[in-house]
Amino acid sequence: MGAAWRGGRPEWEELFRFYGPLARRVAQGILGTPDGAEDAVQEAAAAVYARARSGERRFETVEHARNYFLRAVHNSAVSVGRRRSPSAEPELAALVPSDRPGPDEAAANEERQLDRARWRRVVESALEELRPAEREAVLLRFRDGLTFRVISGRTGTPISTLQARVEAALGKLRRRIGKPAGEA
Amino acid sequence: MACTDRFAALLAEMAAGQLEAEGSRRVLEHVEGCAACSQELDALAGLVGALAERVDARRAESARREWHRWAGLAAAAALLVLFGGWLASRRAASPGAEHVAALVDRRPITAPASLLRGDGAQRGAAFERGMEAYRAGDYARASRELAALHAERAGDRLVGLYLGIALLQSRDAADSERAARLFEEIQDAPGLLGERARWYLANARLAAGDVDGARRVLEALVDADGDYEPNARALLEALDAAAR
Fold it and tell me: Which chain B residues are closer than 8 Å to A103 by Cβ?
């Protein structure tokens, strides 16, 4: 049985650090540009933490907190996007998601580690296994956040080939994740 | 593995920053009820996070950190041999040393990029180098840079805080005692800075084997009911359990 999530300041900071890069990508997708994504994530993190700290919201597992944070980022990015419209007004209330059912029990019972050092070892090991073309596709797609169309333009590789390379690379990453951390 | 190819593709789109609002809303809603896609989300979060930290550069740094880590462990082992009698006497009155060591929370706080702007810019290149090393996880180098700067800027509490946290990562007993002294100088600072210093002071004292000293600080954190109250309360409970 996994340990309950304590939810103190260090735990929240760890959560924001681990999911921060992904959260920026969520915001980037909504805004259509990296501009403003960091602001959206910071606004969401501040709102979520304030609510948690006040006791208004409690989270029993890190998955629960993660989902709440990502939904807040989603709402924050939508709000940032609307503020860019000249006639729009800030919708601060929209930053915080409404209550949703909690995660299923299987996820709640799983022991969770937001160990960024472990993830780096896993990712580095997985990248080593990739063919150079696969590695390049993954880096351009997930490190640089480029569309397949742009990557295709830069590399001269057909989009369908790039998609297949990325899917193959993700498959190897999933297999790596299934191994104990010591084997990463 | 994602539960369907459709959601696997949408999750990957989202991780690449390419999924619009409605799509990400559907995905996030789905993840809350699907353990497989929840795991896939975490895998992608780990991938994006690791790539964001420039994996290639960190490979070279991790080999160097590994050397420093083993050097620190060897030094700690030598200190344990020298202070073996002292540890044995403390075991009679307090939780086992090995239990206490396992409870120490060294997790470093985030050093945001904004630290290097505004007031941070006035601290000069040494601060920039030290914080760059800190953010890259090279705490040995961060300690060296920030220690040199702290010697020049006595009383700079922010430098002292990050230096103390970097020292705490080495797991060396002497470094833990140095870190504790740094946190003692900062613990009365107002607001979150002081509270953080008290939290790390408690853990530095635990790392140095001073359980009673750690307890006093933790009890004060609980009474203050600030951001670290739940952590302080949990650590006190863990110390009580270890002592039984």
Answer: 32-33, 35, 38
Name the residue in chain B with its Cα closest to that of A106: B35
Q: How many CA atoms lie within 13 A of A80 on its CB side?
A: 27
Percentage of chain A beyond pLDDT 70 is 76
A8 to chain B nearest CA, in Å?
6
Residue B240 CB coordination number (10 Å): 11
Q: Chain A within 8 Å of B138 (Cβ-Cβ)?
A: no
User: And the tokens for A74?
Assistant: 């989603």
Render pLDDT for B142-184 as a digit per residue (tens, 0 to 9).
999 999 999 988 788 989 999 999 999 988 889 999 999 999 9
SS (H, E, C) B32-51: CCCHHHHHHHHHHHHHHHHH
Q: Would you give per-residue pLDDT tens digits along chain A (184 residues)?
A: 334 577 888 889 889 989 999 999 999 999 988 888 988 999 999 999 988 888 888 888 899 999 999 999 999 999 888 877 655 444 444 455 554 444 443 333 344 456 777 777 778 888 888 888 888 999 899 988 888 999 999 889 999 999 999 988 888 877 776 654 444 3
Instruction: List CB contacts (< 8 A) between A24 and chain B.
Output: 17
SS3 content of chain A, % helix, strand, coil (to 5): 70, 0, 30
**CB interface of B with A, residues 47-86, below 8 Å:** 47-53, 55, 58-59, 62
Give the one of B12, B228, B229 whose C-beta lies nearest to A170's C-beta: B12
Of the residues B6, B10, B11, B24, the best mutation for testing chain A's interface (the one with the most A CB atoms within 10 Å of its CB) is B24
A60, A114, A123, A130: best to mutate for the B interface, most B CBs within 10 A = A123
B23 pLDDT higher than 90: yes
Angle CA A178–B11–B55, to nearest 5: 60
DSSP H helices, chain B, are 5-15, 21-31, 35-52, 55-82, 84-93, 97-103, 124-135, 139-152, 157-168, 173-186, 191-207, 211-224, 229-243
